[in-house]
Amino acid sequence: MIVDRTSRIATLLATLLLGASLVAQADDPGVAWQALTPEQQQLLAPLARGWDQLPPERQARLATGARRWSTMTPEQRARAQERLQRWQDMTPEQRSDMRQQMRRFEQLPPQEQARLRQNFERFRKLSPEDRQALRERWEKLTPEQRRAFREQQGARRADRQAAPRAGPAPKKSSPP
């Protein structure tokens, strides 16, 4: 039971770092097992046997993840474990799609990333009932309707960005 939990935590740490940027260069020798703190070693124990065979950048990400895990509150750890469970429940195709979406997101301009984060926060703040209703409405749309909606939103966004940010229109003067 403890090995299973420890294994899940180690997997969680690896998953937490999925979208993280590379920490180490290709010529980096990696992180020696002995260089890890006792707490990191305990969290990463399921990987101890093959640690030296892991790529250096993965060792660095796992060590960073173990350090982050130790600073998390119980609530943050619970949320992370929920995300891990969702990840583990995904099919290989779903995981591949998720990685591809993350790569696309990372290639977006910072303003677009910020806009998407804001939209996600607005969605997250909805009540569970409202979120479910929104999902159901979206799922009922045909692919063409979804595409039209996205295009319409893109056009509105472009209009807002192109609109002048000046103050009120100048007043017309009457002839003398």
Give an overview in words:
The chain starts with a helix and ends in a 14-residue tail after the last helix. The protein has two domains: 107 residues, no CATH class; 51 residues, no CATH class. It is elongated. Helix 1 packs across helix 3 and helix 1 packs across helix 4. The chain is built from eight helices and no strands. About 6% of the residues have low confidence. With 176 residues, the chain is mainly α.
SS-based class = mainly alpha
Radius of gyration: 24 Å
Q: State the low-pLDDT regions, or none.
A: 17-26
The total tally of domains equals 2
Beta fraction of the residues? under 5%
What is the oligomeric state here?
single chain
Tally the helices: 8
Q: What is the first-to-last residue Cα distance?
A: 91 Å
The outline comes out as: elongated
Largest sheet: none
Order of helices and strands: HHHHHHHH
Strand segment tally: 0
- What is the mean predicted local confidence, pLDDT? 82
Secondary structure: helix percent: 55-70%
Secondary-structure map with pairings?
Elements (H helix, E strand, L loop, with lengths): L1 H15 L21 H6 L12 H16 L2 H16 L2 H16 L2 H16 L2 H13 L2 H20 L14
Question: Can you tag this structure with a few keywords?
Answer:
elongated, 176 residues, 8 helices, single chain, 2 domains, mainly alpha
Give a quick precis of the structure.
The chain is mainly alpha-helical and 176 residues long. 67% of the residues lie in helices and 0% in strands. The model is unreliable at 17-26 (pLDDT under 50).
